[in-house]
Amino acid sequence: MRNSDGLVVPLRSYLDEVDFETIKQRFEAFWNREPLETPLLHITAPRSEQVAVNVPDDIEERWTNVDYVLRKAEAYLDNTVFMGDAVPWYWPNLGPNSFTAFLGGNLTFLDETTSWMPPFISNLSEYEPEFDESSKWWRIMDAQLDSLCEIARDRFLIGIPDIHYGGDSLAAAFGTANLVRSLYVEPETVRVLVEKLAGICIQVFDRYYRKISRVQKGCITWIPAYSKGKYFALQDDFTGLLSPKMFKELFLEEDVERIARYLDNSIFHLDGPMALGNLDALLQVDALDGIQWVPGAGAEPMSKWIGVCNKILGAGKCLQISCSPQEVPFLLSKLKHEGLFISTSCGSEREGRILLKNAAKCASYKGLE
């Protein structure tokens, strides 16, 4: 990169601004559920001086224009302070239905943070999902990953893009109400499709993994845990609508067990109180490392879910949670520390540094009083 005088200026290495080697060691202990002096604490905050980015007028361009995505990535990294166990990273994103778009769906963008997909199949029994590398949407994602790889080496990590497979993908392709009906009318059709989608999910992940492995070792994703091996966030929000029995019969083996066995590390995204009915089954999956518990929109704060959190940790699983900065000391005093990973966002770097100091002081687990 050249400055206004035409001189070559080295690109800023955001990884050099954190103790990445220590962070990697701490995440290895996290995955192994080993004790740490303080649990993993991911803290970000905005810098006092912010870099602005010119935003395209066209909504779709804000998602798909490679030059804009690169500028947005640099601005995010420039504008963010990474503290504690937070690793500078950026993940390309076409929304939760990008995986299904690679199978024939078409994305519609409502604003810079919301994308949507109209259903595109009318008969589930005739659906034959296949990964289409000629898809417009795969070519866009592929180009974004290639471009990020060109600027990321030794500077920041590239996150594995969001992969919504299984029930989430079927609901996007067929419609949620139609899929619910099919669970009762043609459950075997659903089960077979879930199996096929799990295979395609692994295929897509492999494409992502091989690409980013050219410029970095290990994986990170939108759940910002670092793994030295293969890792991404397992998720199927649709299954939160199901009974535990139906979840186990139609989804658990392919959605969770198969993919967790394939990966080196895995965390399942459990979203909202309705999904808690599936928690017991998830905790029985030996290959699954952990659970991300998200209470859901409008739910009580994380400090009100101590029982759920300790149930996960008590079962020998890792736990990833997000909370307000004010809740961190309380959660550290109430939750077991082996395998615990807390994420929070502070209003300033000063607030984040103070939180780190306070967390070190109150890191001893006191248990339930």
Lay out the secondary structure:
Elements: H1 20-31, E1 40-46, H2 59-64, H3 66-79, E2 80-84, E3 89-90, H4 98-101, E4 108-109, E5 115-116, H5 136-152, E6 157-158, H6 166-174, H7 176-185, H8 187-212, E7 231-235, H9 244-262, E8 265-271, H10 279-283, E9 290-294, H11 306-314, E10 318-322, H12 328-334, E11 340-345, H13 349-361
Parallel strand pairs: 1-11, 3-6, 7-8, 8-9, 9-10, 10-11
Antiparallel strand pairs: 1-2, 4-5
Helix pairs in contact: 6-7, 6-8, 7-8, 8-9
Tell me briefly what this model is.
The chain has about 375 residues and is α/β, with parallel strands linked by helices. About 40% of the residues lie in helices and about 15% in strands.
Describe this structure in words.
With 369 residues, this protein is an alpha/beta fold. It has a single domain (25-361), classed as TIM Barrel, CATH 3.20.20. Helices cover 41% and strands 13% of the residues. It contains 13 helices and 11 strands. The strands form 3 sheets. Strands 2-1-11-10-9-8-7 form a 7-stranded mixed β-sheet, sandwiched between helices. Strand 10, helix 12 (328-334) and strand 11 form a beta-alpha-beta unit. Residues 1-9 and 365-369 have low confidence and may be disordered.
CATH class: Alpha Beta
The tally of domains stands at 1
CATH-assigned fold name: TIM Barrel
Shape: globular
Strand order of the largest sheet: 2-1-11-10-9-8-7
Measured by DSSP, the beta-strand proportion falls in: 5-15%
Structural class: alpha/beta
Mean pLDDT: 94
| H/E topology pattern | HEHHEEHEEHEHHHEHEHEHEHEH
Question: How many β-strands, per DSSP?
Answer: 11
* Helical residues, percent: 40-55%
Largest β-sheet summary: 7 strands, mixed
Intertermini distance:
57 Å
Contiguous runs where pLDDT drops below 50 for at least 5 residues: 1-9, 365-369
